[in-house]
Amino acid sequence: MRNNAVTRFHPWAGLMHPVAVGLAMASLALAVGCSRPPVEQGIADPASSTRAPDSTTEYLPGLEADVYLPGLGTDGAAIVLLVPGGGWQTADRTGLAPLAASLADAGFVAVSATYRAGEDGVAFPVPVQDVVCASAFAAEAARSAGVDPGPVVVLGHSAGGHLASLAALEGAGLAGPCPYPAPRIDGLIGVAGVYDVREFEFALVDFFGGTPQEQPEAWRRGDPIGLVDSGSVPEGLQVLLLHGDSDVDVPVEQSEAFEASLSRADVPVRLEVVPRATHQTIYSAYVAGPPAIAWINELGAGRSTG
After folding, report:
1. Running DSSP on this structure, what letter comes out for residue 248?
2. Among candidate residues 11, 288, 15, 294, the one with its CA nearest the CA of residue 158
3. Among 142, 190, 269, 272, which is disulfide-ready with 7 (CB 3.0 to 4.6 Å)?
């Protein structure tokens, strides 16, 4: 029985003109990483400082991940892998530190990882392979800390939302060499992600190593909505989508279209459109933290009861 919900506080007024989307995303791909979001449009982030991670480890050669552990009594704690954005060109995880710390404070094991991106001279599927391996490392880091892992969730912002969705939908099919046993990914949290790749062709040609005509198989395998529509959804996956109604970089229609695709496939999905949140405030601990924490708690309760 599907239990899908869409919360739209301020519906998007209409589709952005393609040229406007192009200009916004071109700027995003060149200049926007996952830097600390500014306080703007009335949204304040009280987490102006955050505790340091409990450890930082190279989960693959040259790729680091920060591990944030919860307190005592953590058997069955959810594992949350945070995947930064960066226009598919960079992968600076530092901006997700406040959100990772807030998730750990809520009782989860939070791991924020970098991955190889365009600036490293790689293309699809390498970034996804790194994210899949990082999710395996996150579960292993929890076990190494004495935590019996609960449900595994991947959370990604912007381009990271695209990569996280691919890891959740096609993790085994896109996995690369990794020294850790692959976990089952139970949940996906997409934060202002890109899910319809054809709408962002101008920003993804390098990522896929060519145009859709030149690399049709890569574009097919790297398109989250296309994968869902073709039936590529693991059994038991649940999805939360967060998007700001003031996002001018990635239109809210991306999340709306993904929610519709998942609903057609009978995947439990919840879309929350956050009033006044922009592309750079949506992933702050103050904005994304409360709905993410509540949803992960529901996911864990459902999993523990079978």
Report:
1. S
2. 288
3. 272
Helix (H) or strand (E) holding 23: helix 18-31
Instruction: In whole angstroms, give the CA distance from residue 31 to residue 18.
Output: 20
Query: Cis bond leading into 125, ω under 30°?
Result: yes
Which segments of 252-284 does DSSP mark as H helices, in order?
Answer: 253-264
What DSSP state is assigned to residue 269? E
What confidence score (pLDDT) does residue 303 get? 58
CA neighbor of 251 nearest in space, from 18, 3, 46, 7: 18
Q: CB count, 10 Å around CB of 221? A: 20
Sign (positive or negative) of CA dihedral 297, 40, 192, 33: negative
Residues 6+ apart with CB under 8 A from 117: 86, 88, 89, 90, 91, 127
Beta strand 79-83 with 152-157 is: parallel
Tokens of residue 97, six digits: 């530190």
d(CA 88, CA 10): 29
Domains of the chain, earliest start first: 5-11+23-34+49-304 (3.40.50.1820)
Cβ neighbours for 226, distance < 8 A, ≥ 6 positions apart: 197, 220
Q: Which residues, at least 6 apart from 110, have a Cβ–Cβ distance to it below 8 Å?
A: 67, 68, 80, 82, 99, 100, 101, 103, 104
Given a cut of 90, whether residue 270 has pLDDT beyond it is: yes
Tokens of 124: 């699809």
Contact present, 111 and 130 (Cβ < 8 Å): no
| Helix and strand totals (H; E) in the chain | 9, 9
36-84 pLDDT per residue, tens: 444 333 344 444 446 899 999 999 999 999 999 997 666 789 999 999 9
